[in-house]
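Notes, p. 3: input format for complexes.
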Amino acid sequence: MRAFHDARALAHDPDSYFRRGTIVAHPEQGERWTLLRDAIADAHDLVAPADHGEAPILAVHDAAYVRFLREAWSRRGELPGGADAAEILSGHFARPHMSRRPEGMLGLIGYHTADTSTPIRPGTWEAVHAAAQVAVSAADAALEDGRAYALCRPPGHHAYADSAGGFCFLNNSAIAAERLRTRHSRVAVLDIDVHHGNGTQGVFYTRGDILTISIHADPADYFPYYAGYADEVGVGDGEGANRNIPLPHGSGDAPWLAAIEDALEGIARFAPGALVVALGLDASKDDPIGALAVTTDGFARAAETIARAGLPTAIVQEGGYLCEALPRNLRAVLDAYDAACG
Ligand SMILES: [Zn+2]
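Output follows (342 residues plus zinc ion):
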């Protein structure tokens, strides 16, 4: 299948972050992109995205947030010591009961980010803007070819309309879904990353035209903690168009694949014209920050099952962190999807 990619992904490459009281190597490294690209280069058609501009981004994200992301690095001099910083980050984060958008840069960073995992660096805007273009191009290609892959990096599904978090800045899966929505009256998003797709849920929570289903490790003691529970079903027009399927930590192929079958039955009832798969390879048993135990064969079977739904499908890369199985699992997904399409 066509696999859209853009090397500007490497312009954002954080080296460390503050996690549970300790500075650790940042799991969301540029090397992920290189490994994933190399894994599929000899079997799938690597294609550069078209430049669709900011309009598809603004269809999902608040204009003030997009402006903040675009301008933040050039405004670093407004921060104490910012002119010499390698990256900028706040230690203060807005809370629901304390949510005025301030004018100063330090407060703005905390207003538009949820945690310490999304530092703004010299190439952050370039990378996230390129990843969004990759997602849009894959959505368009899915309608032409029936399927396409978007090698997005940084990932996107933890980004809300107005905030970054969980390594994510722009919600590439939501941007792809909104793009597909311009051609179909109903679109579904199936998120199989090990973490709940909280940003995607947030973006579409009041909408009845975009069904969001997330299968993930139970968030009761796992990121994103504050969302991802089974009783979150959408509100208003969106009531019934959001579904969460949390699984016990350590769940292997059988319960994960059963959840995917279950989700696809719901998607069939919704009868969308197109599908976005938010592909997190961090459901792998080998993932360094994962909490499920999916095997390479499990990923291949998931792809076959999803392909059998017969929907135009944009597969958008979400998580999946450095381990020996990471590139193999991507290859298994794309090969199995193609094989199932005949
Ligand atoms: Zn994840």
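The chain has one domain: 2-62+121-341.
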